């Protein structure tokens, strides 16, 4: 087994592709303080991590 550095092996891997759907944020929190606490002013994007599926 040859001892190569990781940087030397990067040529073997193809570039990655991503898919990012458009986010249609149409509403904002009435109370912007609540939005600040959630990290977003858009309720549609408020998906807190609960250690399982994002279900409200």
Notable characteristics:
2 helices, elongated, 20% helix
Number of strands: 0
Category from helices, strands and their pairing: mainly alpha
Binned, the helix content reads 10-25%
The average pLDDT value, as a whole number, equals 78
Largest sheet, in brief, is: none
Which outline best applies?
Answer: elongated
CA-CA gap between termini: 50 Å
Strand content range = under 5%
Return the string of H and E elements: HH
The number of helical segments is 2
Radius of gyration: 20 Å
Low-confidence stretches: none
What does this structure look like?
With 56 residues, this protein is an all-alpha fold. It contains two helices and no strands. The chain has helices spanning 6-9, 32-38. The mean pLDDT is 78.
Quickly describe the structure.
The protein is mainly alpha-helical and about 55 residues long. The chain is built from two helices and no strands.
């Amino acid at each position: 087994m040859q001892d190569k550095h990781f940087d030397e092996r990067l040529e073997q891997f193809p570039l990655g592709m991503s898919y990012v759907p458009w986010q249609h944020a149409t509403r904002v929190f009435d109370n912007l303080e609540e939005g600040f606490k959630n990290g977003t002013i858009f309720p549609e994007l408020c998906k807190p991590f609960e250690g399982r599926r994002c279900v409200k």
